[in-house]
Amino acid sequence: MPGYSPSLVLFVEIVAVFVSALSGALTARRTAGYGVVGMCCLAFAAGLGGSLTRDLLLQKGTPVALTRVDYLATVLVAVPLALAFGRWIETWGERVIGVLDAIGLGWFAVAGTLRALNFELEPAGAAVLGMVTAVGGGVLRDLLMGRVPTVFRPGELYALAALAGIAVLLVVLSVGAPPFLAVSLAIAAGCASRLWSMGQRGRAEALELKLKGRPA
Q1: Which of 7, 97, 150, 186 suits a disulfide with 169, CB 3.0-4.6 Å?
Q2: pTM of the model
Q3: Pick from 193, 181, 22: nearest CA to 109
């Protein structure tokens, strides 16, 4: 597959970094014992962990997150926003963090795959690195918090949701569609798959609580 516009890849990844960093900062804000430093650490882990891991695996020079100031600046913008508007966002409940995480997953899956394709990897290899990019930040965030990463939990469409978006991207690109259309459809597929999984899990948990509440 041919290379794709660096500006398109950069735009997709910057959006992913911002949304994921905001998710990480809000997660820290909701957790007792986390101050501003903790928020910064979790924002950095969630926002840049996946792209750093991908670039280390690519072995194509210094990871892009460390050579471009806009990546770090995007994380630093997310933290004060979480501080300023966190209480208002939290009125929507824990679910808003999950929605942000799902959006970041879909955008990162596409960004990672496109960057790998630009280094002339085969589609299969690009798909693997796309998944690494998508789940890496969430895994690092969860490990720092001492909890089982979401991608390892049963009943979660996390890596598979990323793969759904990647598959759409590769198929649509392979038929000669414009990159912008392929990227849009792929992001929508990845985000929708993850959100659907969250909805299914929520309904299952609600049903379980309802059954437990019934008299014996």
Answers
A1: 186
A2: 0.90
A3: 193
